[in-house]
Amino acid sequence: MKTEKRSSRATQLFEAKFDPRIKTYFYWGGTLILLLTIVGIVLIPFWLIFGRSYCNKYYDTLFCELTTRALHFKKGIYFRTERTVPLDKIQDLTFKEGPILRYFGLSSLYIETAGQSAQQASDMTLTAIIDAHEFRNMVMEQRDEVTGYKESTTPLPTSTDQHSLAPLLGEMNETLKRIEKKIGETS
Question: How many Cβ atoms from other residues are within 10 Å of residue 142's Cβ?
Fold first, then answer.
C-alpha cells in the first residue's frame, strides 16, 4: 500500500482514494439545497442539466495524501482549497455519518488539530474516503511516530515507595526531553 515519492521535505506514504458515490451525494445535496432556497428554485433547471458534469469535475479534483510529516488535501474547481495539516498538530480524527451519508454508504472524517477552539468546526473534513478506518489508523500511527509517542510499558506503582517511582519518573523525564527537543526544532 505504501508508495514512494521523493520530495525535498517529505515522503508520500499513502494517497487516499475517494468513493465515486460522492458524486451522486454532491448532486442530490446540491439539488436539495436549491429546492430549499427561493433563488435556488430558479437555478434548478441549470443544475439538473450541468450538475452531473460539475460533480464529476469536482470529484476529479479531490486529492489527499499522507506523507511522513503531514496530511495534504486539495479540492475545488472554481474555488480551490489546499490544506496541509502537520501530523504533530493532529489531536483526533473523528468519523461522522449522518442519515444522508449513510444512505449513500459514505462517511466523513473530521480532523481536529491543536489550538482549535471549541466553537470552530474541524480543521479539515474528508468525505467519502475509501477504507476510511484504515486511513485513520495509518494517519494516527504516523502521527505517533512523528511525535515520538509510544504506549507506556511501565506499570503504575501501587505504593508510594520511592524506588517504585523511579522508572516512572525516568520515563517522564525522557518524554519532557523529547518535547523540549521538538520545541527547539520548530523555533
Answer: 20
- Contact status, residue 58 vs residue 52, Cβ threshold 8 Å: no
Which positions ≥6 away from 18 have C-beta within 8 Å? 59, 62, 64, 127, 128, 129, 130
Give how far Cα 137 sits from Cα of 7, 24, 36, 86, 93, Å: 24, 27, 38, 16, 9
Where are the domains positioned within the chain? Answer: 154-187
Cα separation of the two ends of the chain: 34
Query: What torsion do the CA atoms of 126, 129, 135, 136 make, to the nearest 10 degrees?
Result: 40
The phi-psi region of residue 68 (left if phi > 0; otherwise alpha if psi is between -120 and 50; otherwise beta) is: alpha
CA–CA distance, 82 with 127 (Å, rounded to integer)? 15
Average per-residue pLDDT for the chain? 83
What is the chain's length? 187
Instruction: Give pTM, 2 decimals.
Output: 0.68
Which of 176, 171, 140, 141 shows the shortest CA–CA distance to 153?
171
> If pLDDT is split at 50, 70 and 90, which confidence band does 153 have?
low
- Cα 55 to Cα 49: distance, rounded to the nearest angstrom: 12
